[in-house]
Design goal:
The chain contains no helices and 22 strands. The strands form four sheets. A seven-stranded mixed β-sheet has the order 1-20-17-22-15-13-14, with no helix packed on it.
């Protein structure tokens, strides 16, 4: 089964000049349920104006994977840790309870454009952790490049949750296929371009969730870039009730 959330169906949140688009959010109308996608809490697209960003705020526990698509993202937290994530880099960070986190656009002249995936933890009490890695366009060209995995395979970021995160930059006419093991589901997000997910036409900002499918099959109709999250079922525990983090 494939469910689609179109770009126009995402929740648009505007704070000053900053724009965020949330793929998953509380809703009364029928649509993709986050409960069907295991450890995946949220997928957000965020555009930050020059010098702008989020104020410091407390967060719930989550494991966050951030992709800086354009620009640079400056980060700091209440422990005194700070750093910058640049375009083309992916970052994995554990958000621990009680630690305040602040992000800003590192540039005073250019916009920052990022994508953020949040995963719910196995259990409460996450240990603070941080890791980042560059995956160049050449590494992701016409192939599903694993950027985060539980075992750190192929130099990917090492995450604690039962999820595999892939990135790909695909030429028009190229076909990609990803096999799904029994009991696993997937969410695909199209960053730009146009592609057919099985027989469904997807365009920039669209997302598609696959449940009880044997594979993810995608053909680019024009040059495209995508993120794919392959998730196992989340355990039913108190941690599974952890709410998503608002960008």
């Amino acid at each position: 089964m494939i469910v689609v959330r179109r770009n126009s169906e995402r929740l648009h949140v505007k704070r000053g000049k900053q724009d965020s688009w949330l793929t998953f959010y509380p809703q009364k109308t029928p649509g993709p349920s986050i409960d069907e996608f295991g450890f995946l809490i949220s997928l957000a697209e965020i555009r930050m104006p020059p010098g702008g960003g989020s104020a410091s705020y407390p967060t719930e526990e989550a494991e966050i994977v951030t992709y800086v698509y354009r620009g640079a993202l400056a980060q700091e937290d209440s422990t005194g840790s700070s750093g910058v994530v640049h375009a083309g880099e992916f970052q994995r960070m554990n958000i621990s309870r009680g630690i305040r986190h602040k992000e800003t656009n590192a540039s005073r002249t250019d916009w920052a454009h990022i994508f953020r995936i949040a995963l719910r933890p196995w259990e409460v009490g996450l240990v603070r952790a941080h890791e980042q890695q560059r995956f160049g366009a050449a590494q992701r060209h016409n192939v599903l490049c694993v950027v985060a995995s539980p075992d750190g395979r192929k130099g990917s970021l090492r995450i604690s949750q039962d999820a595999l995160i892939y990135s790909a930059v695909v030429d028009a006419g190229r076909h990609l296929i990803h096999e799904l093991q029994p009991g696993r589901n997937a969410w695909l997000h199209l960053i730009y371009g146009e592609a057919n997910l099985q027989d469904i036409v997807m365009t920039q900002g669209d997302g598609g969730g696959l449940t009880t499918e044997r594979s993810v099959s995608l053909t680019a109709q024009e040059n495209a870039e995508l993120l794919l999250v392959d998730v196992g079922p989340a355990p039913r525990s108190s941690a599974s009730d952890t709410p998503g983090r608002t960008p």
